[in-house]
Amino acid sequence: MSAADILSLLPMVILAGGILLTLILIALRRSHLLIFTAAEIIILAAIVAALLHLNQEPQIIGDIIVVDRFGLYYQILLLSATLVISIFSYISLERLFPDKRKEEYYVLLMLATLGSSMMVISTHFISFFVSIEVLTISLYTLISYYRERDKAIEAGLKYLVLAAMSSAFLLFGMALIYAVSGQMSFHALFAVATNYSGSSNVMLIAGAGLMIVGIGFKLALVPFHMWAPDVYEGASSPVSAFVATVSKGGVVALLLRFFTMTDLYRYQNVMLAFTVIALLSMLAGNLLALQQRNVKRLLAYSSIAHLGYLLVAFIAGKGMGVQAATFYITIYMLTILGAFGVVTILSKTDSEADGTEYYKGLFWRRPLLAALFTLFLLSLAGIPLTAGFIGKYFLLTAGLGNRQWLLAFVLVASSVIGLFYYLRLIVTMISQDEDYQKGLSPGIPSKGGLLTLMVLGILVLGLGLSPGWLIDLVRTLP
């Protein structure tokens, strides 16, 4: 590997080296504040390194990795999300487990981020699989890290079993594709895809289908979604936010790159499978969310629906479809981080604020937090003047541009269904209720957490009013 290759991988080198440095710091001195500060500095340094390389020419490292503008954009996005999650994690760990050893948590958080960030620049089955396993194995422990909580171990075990199953599907699909092509790099698979038209090669389509199943589990798409609400509820709110953003964002970027580079869009059976999955995810996610009274489970089903929305742009194909999907995942990550951040900040020392009873009359007790939560919920619902509305408009434009009439109609109809449960939670916050006087009052907000939420709120509102700069940036990605 040349010096230029190492320099292009500098963000990941900083993150990997930072993980080793953090382990050494933990061995020398156990201090939650020290390790948290070190993790923040390491992640910030990796973001700065990625920003400095954003405008450079793509660097191809063998057939395994390509460091280009697309990959660097996603790395910056994932690292920034981890930066926010680490702030919420500090608040959560200090509040829920003041006496627990907390330092190893940040090592796992950075390790999972390293796996997700490497995935977005992968162009080979080997680098793809190693990256996704680094991410997944770290998540096993993160999900069950608060093991004193009733459902944490259960959530970790469920994710362990289903993630192992999804990895098996991915490996089997890769094996079938390799049996046909004799190649494992995405570049080489493009030549294979062009030699087979339609459904003339059953093994190639079967391999792609098995990979769809594996990716469907990772993204919690219907019908591979059953683990999501239990894991979101059992894990701490910052870890749930990580699963909903960094984990899924990395897989989305990999999916876009894989299908674009191999041109699997030409296989109608494969795209039909994605169309069915998108329809089921949009409808089932919103319909199941209607029945939820637990805020974290509600956000879990909402996440399923939003990934279904994103597939509308993905199915639209190259060009505008990829741009719309990238824009939407950015908006979604900002918004869902804010939503889970509110849950984290409202949590008390003995429990998380995941029941709707914690939000009764919140406007009269914590007006700023209630206003920010309302903004995030309205953005998730796609209400005008929020970033979520611009994101859904971009998705619709991409879908209709490719004549995906059914997908566009279901996107609009299911968004109307979703509006109901978001508004129901907003009405709960506005209502005046005395239940909070019986032990259901939320925790005292952290100043650092409030400041972080305000920054996220400004971004969500600002992108709703003036999204042009982000749209222009996304359009420059290959």
Give an account of the 3D structure.
This protein has 478 residues and is mainly α. It has a domain at 289-478. The protein has 20 helices and two strands. It has helices at 3-8, 10-28, 32-52, 69-96, 103-119, 125-143, 152-181, 186-195, 202-219, 227-234, 237-262, 268-289, 295-316, 320-346, 362-365, 367-381, 387-401, 405-430, 447-465, 468-475, and strands spanning 59-61, 65-67. A hairpin with a 3-residue loop joins strand 1 and strand 2.
**Structural class determined from secondary elements:** mainly alpha
Specify the overall morphology.
globular
Q: Please give the largest β-sheet.
A: 2 strands, antiparallel
Radius of gyration: 21 Å
- Unreliable stretches (pLDDT < 50, length at least 5) are 436-440
Helicity level: over 70%
Query: Which strands sit side by side, in order, in the main sheet?
Result: 1-2
Report the average pLDDT across residues: 87
Measured between the Cα atoms of the first and last residue, the distance is: 25 Å
- Report strand %: under 5%
Number of helical runs? 20
Order of helices and strands: HHHEEHHHHHHHHHHHHHHHHH
Strand tally: 2
Q: Any chance you could write out the topology, listing elements then pairs?
A:
Blueprint lengths: L2 H6 L1 H19 L3 H21 L6 E3 L3 E3 L1 H28 L6 H17 L5 H19 L8 H30 L4 H10 L6 H18 L7 H8 L2 H26 L5 H22 L5 H22 L3 H27 L15 H4 L1 H15 L5 H15 L3 H26 L16 H19 L2 H8 L3
Antiparallel strand pairs: 1-2
Summarize the structure.
Helix content is 75%, strand content 1%. With 478 residues, the chain is mainly alpha-helical.
